[in-house]
Write a structure and sequence with these properties.
EC 1.1.1.49; Glucose-6-phosphate 1-dehydrogenase; 16 helices; 484 residues; NAD(P)-bd_dom_sf; binds NADPH dihydro-nicotinamide-adenine-dinucleotide phosphate; globular; G6P_DH_C; binds ligand LXAUTJHC; alpha/beta; 36% helix
Length: 484
């Protein structure tokens, strides 16, 4: 691991407090940072160094998964400095550069600089440009930029943003965080698919009937009305997390299992995705919005009654979609995506339903087919289970499904942000979204955004606490399937 300076813009914000400082601290405790490093935090608010150290200490005590260790915490805090900078003011970057270089000299650090923009997206381009123009980006070592989603609001704005960032950073220097790519089970997908010859042999249209990717949430819009009502589930979850999981599930084994190999295969999946048009949007995409209901015994209000939401809002809090990957490997196999707020349970999972060549021979007591299912549980549980069929001798030898299960119950598994920050420090982009993927994802999603904007797609209401509108079940029933 290289010694470096971690420059954090937005150091006084929510993400820094809840995720970034705890992740850095956990990496420090696990000796995954170089012995010598510098962290320079910056926010808009003026703060004395001591006050900032106390603020970070509080964040670590509240959000780090590790037990308190006063001396190690003090040591970690000694690496951190704070400076208030208004990121829109070009001339303020000179002082930041002075602080960064003086710490580099003091600690004898090479000029390796990682810039993490944990700020609102409208600042991404101005910060990248000011980093470059102020000399902060003119290093003798490496420089890298981490940005958070949302990466654009639609295809044109994403392209515009990328063009601006590209003036200051090369594609290889940009690390676009999609926190789902940091989830241990998502990182494990490639191994599940390719390191198991049994599954690898079956991972194609000959053996797989359909693929279902669900990310259901219990929470509603929370305190994010301003953001969410302008984004909806389509921008918030589908364009990024859901399509990323789909790419990883559908990709072909790369010739070389490397960052470039994997990213190339993911890109091919997106290129093979059947484009949407005004006709198939209405048959293949379900837009939903929650109305009032009950979750775990508690009554909850409908979306349009939430504080900050207009009563006329047609925003999508639920999306189900049927996708077709038109390539040799997946021709004719539907991929179903489903995500929403205020659903029955919090669960992110991928279910692979295998074909049943003996369709009809074995059925359950109600006459339903018993497909083999491979379920990859991502969140909140991490595990894999395989549904097989077996004779139950205690039930007159009837064929019944049994589950072969593995659940990861390791304690202290690194969190997504730890894994991702560690990778970025190592210069490993495997689990970051390449611009190609981001652009192709926006390209696929854009006709849906247009249809929602023009209000040509129906809005289906679903009861809070359900698994979405009926139309979402019909989407699968049309092909003879059901959600698992
Ligand atoms: N919070 C989360 O869980 C998640 C956040 N994200 C993304 O991460 C990014 C940060 O989010 P979050 O931490 O929640 O946002 P916050 O609003 O909590 O924090 C914003 C930060 O930006 C700083 N800031 C605002 N304006 C300026 C300015 N003109 N000059 C310098 N600094 C400024 C603030 O400084 P100050 O406080 O001093 O005013 C603060 O440190 C966003 O892109 C968000 O979409 C992504 C996933 C999850
Ligand atoms: O990016 C986002 O993800 C969360 C869900 O993440 P998870 O790790 O809890 O599954 C979602 O609630 C939020 O709206 C979205 O912005």
């Amino acid at each position: 691991m290289d010694s470096m300076t971690f420059v954090l813009f937005g150091a006084t914000g929510d993400l820094a407090k809840r995720k970034i400082f705890p992740a850095l601290y956990n990496l420090f405790l696990d000796e995954k940072l170089a012995p010598n490093f510098s962290i320079v935090g910056s926010g808009r608010s003026p703060m004395e160094q001591e006050e900032f150290s106390e603020y970070v200490e509080q964040s670590l005590k509240t959000f780090s998964r590790r037990e308190d260790n006063d001396s190690r915490m003090k040591e970690f805090l000694s690496f951190i400095r704070y400076m208030a900078v208004d990121v829109t003011q070009k001339d303020e970057y000179a002082q930041l550069l002075d602080l960064v270089t003086s710490r580099e000299k003091e600690l004898n650090l090479p000029e390796n600089r990682l810039f993490y923009l944990s700020v609102a997206p409208q600042f991404f381009d101005v910060i990248a440009s000011n980093i470059q123009q102020s000399g902060l980006g003119s290093t003798k070592g490496w420089k890298r930029l981490i940005i958070e989603k949302p990466f654009g609001h639609d295809l044109p704005s994403a392209r515009e943003l990328n063009a601006k960032l590209s003036k200051s950073f090369e594609e290889e220097e940009i690390y676009r965080i999609d926190h789902y790519l940091g989830k241990p089970m998502v990182q494990n997908l490639e191994a599940i698919e390719f390191a198991n010859p049994i599954l690898q042999a079956l991972w194609n249209k000959r053996h797989i009937a359909n693929v279902q990717i669900t990310a259901s949430e219990i929470v509603g819009v929370e305190e994010r009305a301003g953001y969410y009502d302008n984004s909806g589930a389509i921008r918030d979850m589908i364009q990024n997390h859901m399509l990323q999981m789909m790419m990883l599930t559908a990709m072909h084994i790369p010739e070389k299992v490397s960052a470039n190999g994997i990213r190339e295969e993911k890109k091919k999946v997106m290129e093979a995705l059947r484009p949407l048009n005004p006709e198939n949007i209405n048959t293949d995409v379900i837009r939903g919005q929650y109305s009032s209901g009950e979750i775990k015994g508690e009554k909850v209000i409908g979306y349009i009654d939430e504080p900050g939401i207009e009563r006329t809002s047609k925003n999508d809090t639920f999306i189900a979609a049927r996708l077709w990957v038109d390539n040799e490997m997946w021709e004719g196999v539907p991929f179903y995506l489903r995500t929403g707020k205020r659903m029955t349970e919090k669960s992110t999972r991928i279910v692979i339903e295998f074909k049943d060549p003996l369709r009809g021979v074995y059925k359950d007591e109600a006459g339903n087919a018993l497909p083999n299912l491979l379920t990859i549980e991502i969140n909140p549980n991490a595990g894999v289970s395989l549904q097989l069929n077996s004779k139950n001798l205690l039930n007159e030898g009837k064929v019944e499904p049994i589950n072969v299960m593995f659940y990861s119950n390791e304690e202290n598994v690194p969190e997504a942000y730890e894994l991702l920050i560690h990778d970025a420090l190592l210069g490993d982009p495997t689990f970051f979204a390449h611009w190609n993927e981001v652009e192709l994802a926006w390209k696929w999603v854009q006709p849906i955004l247009d249809a929602f904007e023009a209000d040509t797609a129906p809005l289906h209401h679903y009861k809070a606490g359900s698994m979405g509108p009926e139309a979402s079940d019909k989407l699968l029933a049309e092909n003879g399937f059901k959600w698992w």
